[in-house]
Amino acid sequence: MAERILQLIIVGIFQGSVYGLLAMGLSLQYGVCRVLNITHGEFVMLGAVLTFTLSGLGINPLLAPVIIGPLLFGLGFLLQATLFRGLKAWAPSPAAFEGNALLAAFGVMYIIQYFARIQWGGRLMPSYYLADMVSFLGMDFVKNQFVTFAIALALGVAVYLFLSRSRMGRAIRATAEDPGTAGLMGVNTNMILAFSFGLGALLAGIAGTLVSMKTAASTSMGFSSTVIALIVVVLGGLGSIPGSFVAGILIGIVSMLVAGLWEPVLTVPVYYAMLMVLLLIRPTGILGKK
Amino acid sequence: MDITRFISTHRKLLLVGFLVLILIFIITLPLYTGASDVRVLTTVLMYVVLAVSWAMFSGTTGYMSLAPAAFFGLGIYTMALLQKELPFFLIIPIGGLVAFAFALLIGLVTLRLKGIYFAIFTFGLVVFMTELVQFLETRLWGQHGQHITPIDNEILLYTMLGLVVVTVLATYFIRRSRYGLALLSIGGNEEAAEHMGINTTRTKVLIFAISSAFMGAAGVITAPGLIYVNANIAFSLFYSFMPILMAVFGGMGQLYGPVVGAVIFGYLEKTLRAQLYSYFMLGFGIILVAVILFLPNGIAGLVPTLQDKLGGLMARLRKGEQGEQHADT
Hints:
Structural class of chain A: mainly alpha
Strand order of the largest sheet of chain B: 1-2
Structural class of chain B: mainly alpha
Strand content of chain B: under 5%
Largest sheet of chain B: 2 strands, antiparallel
Largest sheet of chain A: 2 strands, antiparallel
Number of helices of chain A: 11
Shape of chain A: globular
Oligomer: heterodimer
CATH class of chain A: Mainly Alpha
Order of helices and strands of chain A: HHHHEEHHHHHHH
Number of helices of chain B: 16
């Protein structure tokens, strides 16, 4: 029993790293652009489905992000540079902008989802990668879990270092803090906003590729990814990048324990229970600032 | 000129007359059309309830609830579980109460925080409800889904019409009451509203719960027309998306905005959805984005603009006539 729990926790950490990656993109988009991008999961779906399409052309899933990444980055960049920038310019107040952006994202979610459904249909698209078992510490694991964990962790660290160390990262943080002043300091804020949004979309796309190695992709998978990403983001603290990653791993462990020991249907209700408790005692999230 | 003066002096009377005409039309509809038209009209009326009650809270405060379907589905399930025990007309208020209580709980957890937490929380609520109901259903009854005894179409139509009247009247009076003004000031600037002495959390939670109660009641009345429901049908995301689209399209600033949106899209949904589901949803997504971008106040927002434009045109014409008269003398 103890060994089974340990295994579930390790698998949960592996799974959670992908959730963390998912949530990081969303956190970046909300933290910088103030757009609660509920289209996020649809980008994950696009990443997963495109990985399937590319693997049909004989391209290794590990190389797929090289093509998918720029594509989704461009899509996210364009969304922010046209739609959300326009909304921001016309909104009477920041609060009104957040509301309108949310509704617009809701519309975009349906556009992408049903465009994909028309394009690819509703079937399952399996493109498993390295799905054979390997023994590790006396327990059996699927090989791709190590791969996805390594990629997610590396990307998470890379994004964190990029935001905290690089010049561009500093500009992004300044824009998140106070776009007006950042603009006066010579930051091209519109470019930074679009770049951050694109980066979030890119992370979602790569997360999609990682998901598609483990589970079959389908055009309707986006919504549940968005729900998980949103819950993780609130748990970790809205706008906090490391918080998202920590909360992602926490949610991964919880989901594995609930599904493995109790009842798979109840994972989302359990997330909600966690979310409720957290909002009651610490609304800023695990690592969030006031 | 006499007609314009007549319209402007007897505006209220005309409006009431117009509403009475519509009511008469709906009530007498079953006399001269078939069952399918009655069903279409019932669905349209259901969307009117959902859109108006959604706009009652989210339109005025700016707190975006993304889960009308959660409360609507709760109503459907209340009907499915109580249909054998209680008469239909008693279940309607019970369904409303169940949704009211559930919304109260959610509101108390999320509505004292910033709006974004509320939006996030409601977004996944439909999934939460679906999975919870699925779990309970298999555990408690060992079955998937519920059968609901059908009720006569005309009875459903009239009940739904009654609910529409109640919802619209409730919205109308809430808008005019202290609560309505409080809601508007919360939507304008919440901090200022709080400083003026408005108990913002209480107002928000209360109105959110009231608006959800109407959604729950609408669910109860819709349920018999579905005959069979399971968690995925009752808590379909579609019922979250449509009311929002309708209210945004119609315009949330005016009471009639969501009604107009609901009538247009409710009819389109009922006639087109079956054949062209994906294209239909794609098109509606595009419409939603376009309306938010280009018509932030919806169709209702166009009316004052048009009035301004037309008024200006009329004034210019009149001035032109006078100018010509001056030239003549």
